[in-house]
Amino acid sequence: MKRILLATGLLLVSAAAVAAGFSVSSPDLSPNQKIGSKFVFNSFGCTGENISPALNWKNAPVGTKSFAIMVHDPDAPTGGAGFWHWVVINLPATMTGLAQGDGGVDSKNLPAGAQQIRNDYGMAAWGGPCPPVGNKPHRYNFTVYALKTDKLAIPDGASTAVVGFMVNQNTLGKASLMARFGR
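Structure (tokenized):
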């Protein structure tokens, strides 16, 4: 009986440590709140500045060798696939965040080896929110993945689905922040 209680106690402590550990935040985004126009796409009828928001993360799991970031709108009317706004892989394990604007098309502010993947707008860069007019505000999930590999070997032209599969196959932990935008 003591062994069962001890094992149960260790599992509860381990689960609490994981739950209270890895987290993501942003000075530019408030959880469950509206995304500012600075970060909104500048096309398809939207007139934002299309600047990527800053993201910060802390307490990555032990054994993290790199990070990936994936930003997804599950509410996009795409037949169930949602819409990928930003995918960045191969960020070094020493990183604890990206600054506002690091998701530009030129990738000049990303560390060597980091790679932006083509989003659903068709560009390898940040593509801000721009949901259809009149819909309820969409949710935008900003997820940072702690990976057990130094580098994901992604073939040129790979879809976000392939990248998502590779990221999830190598995930030690993930942390998310959700913000909203509608028009």
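Residues 24-181 form a domain with the Phosphatidylethanolamine-binding Protein fold (CATH 3.90.280.10). DSSP finds two helices and eight strands in the chain.
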